[in-house]
Amino acid sequence: MAAPTVTFPVSGGDVTLEAMQDEIDVALGVLYEGSAASDHDHAIGDVTGLETALGGKAASDHDHAIGDVTGLETALGGKAASDHDHAIGDVTGLETALGGKAASDHDHAIGDVTGLETAL
User: Fold this and answer.
1) pLDDT digits (tens, 9 = 90+) for 7-63
2) Hey, which of 13, 14, 97, 105 would disulfide with 7, CB 3.0 to 4.6 Å?
């Protein structure tokens, strides 16, 4: 099946869509003539001001002392050490939650486990 011809009036007569596309392609070719490919590179010195801007930046793999970061030492001073402990009473609701649990070293009679006696 051949593609339909689409025409629309312009001054001087009708023009096909294909002819218009050709004209657009020609116009774009003139517009972009001499332009670089979309995937190209530049040396740092080819970009105005880039070398100066980068000169004032730190390397991506650098370190800071705690005192170099504003407010960090104060913020860390209010935190607990990563290897600290809490009494059960210091954790809200923990004592109540544990009160309803069995000791880790407890036993069950066979009849206390649903379906166990039948399974055995």
Assistant:
1) 555 556 666 777 777 777 766 766 666 677 778 888 989 999 999 999 889 888 999
2) 14
Alpha carbons within 13 A on the beta-carbon side of 108? 9
**Paired residues of 13 in beta bridges:** 10
- Cβ count near 7 (within 10 Å): 13
Which residue bears the tokens 């010195």?
45
In order of 84, 90, 91, 99, 102, the CA distances from 96 in angstroms are 22, 12, 10, 5, 13
pLDDT in tens, 59-81: 889 999 999 999 999 999 889 88
Lookup: tokens for 46: 């080819």
C-alpha to C-alpha distance for 94 and 103, rounded to whole angstroms? 15
Please state, in angstroms and as integers, the Cα–Cα distance from residue 35 to each residue in 30, 39, 107, 110, following that order.
Answer: 10, 11, 82, 84
Query: What does the alpha-carbon distance between residue 71 and residue 79 come to, in Å, rounded to a whole number?
Result: 13
